[in-house]
C-alpha cells in the first residue's frame, strides 16, 4: 500500500476538508455548501430551519462538569436534523494562540490574573467572538455553541446584551454537578480527550486540572438570573431546570434532546446479524443458518473477551479494579437479529427488541438482480445513481426514510447509560454510525461493515472515536460487506481519508476506514438496491 499516494487522493478529493485540532469524528468540520443533513426534512434559501433566527448557546459550568461533551453532543443532534451548527471551543482559540497546556501563563485560569494575562484572555476571547459573528452573519449559520466557563452572572448578562445588539438570541446551558464520582470520571478522561494534556502523565494531568478547578470554584456563580433564557442540567441529567423567557420551537427541541442526554462515558458496539437460511428475501423472516449460529457465537465470545481486555488494561494504567460496565443488547424484531443475540442472552446479558431497527425495505427490487433492475426501471436507476441517499425505489425506503424512522432510537441511544451492543442489518448500522461519527448524508450509503468486525464507538469530550475489533475464525464468504463498491487504498490509522473522516483506530483490528469512494460518474457504482438483503 502506498500511503503517500493515498494521502494525495484524499487531499484532492472534493470531499476533503481541513481537519481541526480534534480528529477522527467529523463533528468539528462543517458540511459543504448545499449538502443536506441525514435527517433534514426540508431546506430554505437562507439555510435556517424551524422558523428560528440565529441563536448562540453559551455553556456555563466549572471544569470537568461535561460542558464540552454537552456542546459536541448537541451539535451532533442539531446538525443531524439539518440545523447549521458549529461549536466554538474557547480552549481551542487559547491553544491556537499560546500552544498546549504547558505554554499557558501560570495565572491564566485564575480570576485575579496579572494585567498581561487579562489582556491575553481578552485577545483570545475577541478572536472567538469575531468568528461566531462571521459564522452567523456571513455563512448562514443558525446556531453557534460557545463552549466556555462563563462563571459570573454579570458576564453572562453582558454576553446576552452584546449578542442581542446583533439580533442574536442567547440560550445558556449550565452543567452543574455535585456527584464526586461523575467529576472524578470526567477529570480522569481529560488525559485521553483534551488536547491540553497530550504527552502528560495521568497524575500530572489530573493534578494540573484539579488546580484549574480550584481556581474557579470560589468565584463561580450558578445560573439564577430570571431575565435570561437558561437550562440547568444537574448531575448528568438527574434533574433539569428550565427558565423560559422567550423560547421558540428550536429551543424546545433542544430542551427535549437534553432530557435524553447524560455525560457518563459509554461504549457503543455495532455488529451485523448472522446469515439466515434465505439470505435474498426481505419478506421471509428466516432463522439463522448453521453458519449464522457459528458467527453469533464467535462474535459474542470476541466481544466478551475484548471488554475484559479493556478492563484489565484500565486497571494496568492505574484505574479502579471494578467490574466492566453493564452491557445491554438491542436487536430488531427479525428472527436472525434476535437469534444472533441468543448466546449473550444465555450469558445473562439483557436483550431488547426494537422494531425501528428493521432493515431498509427494498420494495419492488426484492430478489431481483442488478441486470433485471436496470432493464425494468431505467429511470429509477438514473435517479438512484444521482442521489443514492434520498432516492427510493417504488414501494421501498430510502436511507433518508430510515434516518427519520431511527430518530426515537437515537434519542434512546443518548439516554442509555450502560454499554450498548446493537445487532442489526448493515443499512441500519450505516445510519447509526453516520449519526455518531457526524458523517455527511452522501457518505452514509458507502459505509462498510464486514461481518468479521465489531465496530466500537468510544465517546470522548471533543469527539467520538471508532475502532474495529476483528472476529477470528470466520469463513471468507461471510466476511464481505455490501454494497461492494470499488475501494481505494486506505491510509494508516490516524490519516485523513477522502470522506473527511479519520480511519478508525485498531484495537485487535485491521486499520481500515470502512468507507469507499467513487472516482467518477462511471466508476464504482453503488449497487442499485440494498444488497444487504443478504443481511
TrEMBL record:
Keywords, alphabetical: ATP-binding, Nucleotide-binding
One GO term of the biological process aspect: fructose metabolic process
Keyword Nucleotide-binding: yes
Biased composition (Polar residues): 505-520
Pfam family, one: 6PF2K
Gene3D superfamilies with a match to the protein in the record: P-loop containing nucleotide triphosphate hydrolases, Phosphoglycerate mutase-like
Gene Ontology cellular component terms for the protein in this record: cytosol
Parts forming coiled coils: none
Domain of life where this protein originates: Eukaryota
Keyword Hydrolase set for record: no
Matches recorded under SUPFAM superfamilies: P-loop containing nucleoside triphosphate hydrolases, Phosphoglycerate mutase-like
Signal peptide, first to last residue: none
Stretches the record annotates as Disordered: 480-535
Record-annotated 6-phosphofructo-2-kinase domain positions: 45-264
Protein name from the UniProt record: 6-phosphofructo-2-kinase domain-containing protein
